[in-house]
Amino acid sequence: MGRAVERPIFFVGAPRSGTTVIFNVFAARSDLAWFSQHLARFPGWPSVTALTRLADLGRGFRKSIDRSDLRRRRLERLRVGPSEAYPVWERYCGERFVYDFMLDAKATPGERERVHRLIEKLQRYQGKRRFATKITGPARIGYLASIFPDAQFVHVIRDGRAVTSSLLRVHFWRGSRRERHVSWNGGLDEGDLDPWRDSDDLPLALAALQWAAIVSGARDEARELAPGQYVELRYEEFVADPHLILDETTDACGLPPASGPHEFLDQRVELRDMNYRWREDFDDRQIELLDDLVGEQLRELGYEPAPSTS
Fold first, then answer.
1. Which residue(s) pair with 155 in the sheet?
2. Where is 132: in which H helix or E strand?
3. Where are the domains of the chain?
4. Burial profile 264-273: b = 16 or more Cβ within 10 angstroms, e = fewer
5. Which end of the chain is more exposed for a tag (fewer CB within 10 A), N or C?
6. How far is the CA of 15 from the CAs of 120, 134, 168, in angstroms?
7. Architecture in CATH of 9-300
């Protein structure tokens, strides 16, 4: 018999919001199972995640956190670390999980059974009490809660202007079809896209509107959860005081204190606040456009408008 899946933890957030660094630090515990890069390559073989036990033997076996602006060292490719493992979600939940907002979607009985059995196996192979993972893009909270009614969700939020600036820089977005087409179905209707078209199809506008749709979609879905199942974590607060925010998140997830994440944070993470870059990347006209597009949501989240430099 596998271990029962109790209160799995899902870190969600828009891409380039800091989910990778925050989750990887959080997951440097000895009591959490997670998807590994090996499972991403072989999604039908959950036994390969037994290799994650290497990470418990010493820090030399565990991946550092990849920076998008640096090439990964060869040794890092051999180390073990968490992966979003979208091939796993596609295998067990179907293609729509990868490419859709899944608002109002619920898992079928077959999908629930397959995912439960998978996570039970991962916990057994990895020898862990609970499971955690991260998912970027649409949060898919309603769908995941239909599989795990007691799931815990940690929503990582970052200033949408900084997210937009970062998206326009990274290789998987810059120059790709994502600059011209909506990346996920079902989150923005034709009317929502009118401001993008009015901007002459600027990639900046499309990226900002998708950030807003992801954040608002997650917050709307979270309203259907029981109290305590959903917490918001601000990237800016984590960068300012990562140890404090790490402890608060640990407590919110019902986990005991652990030294592993703090040691990983101090020894293996180069934490830099990159929020200033959007002010350098965008001129006054672009900043004004961003305020027109997502200013209301930014202010609702507590992000102040930028003063004009002209």
1. 12, 232
2. strand 130-136
3. 9-300
4. bbeeebeeee
5. N
6. 28, 11, 11
7. 3-Layer(aba) Sandwich (3.40)
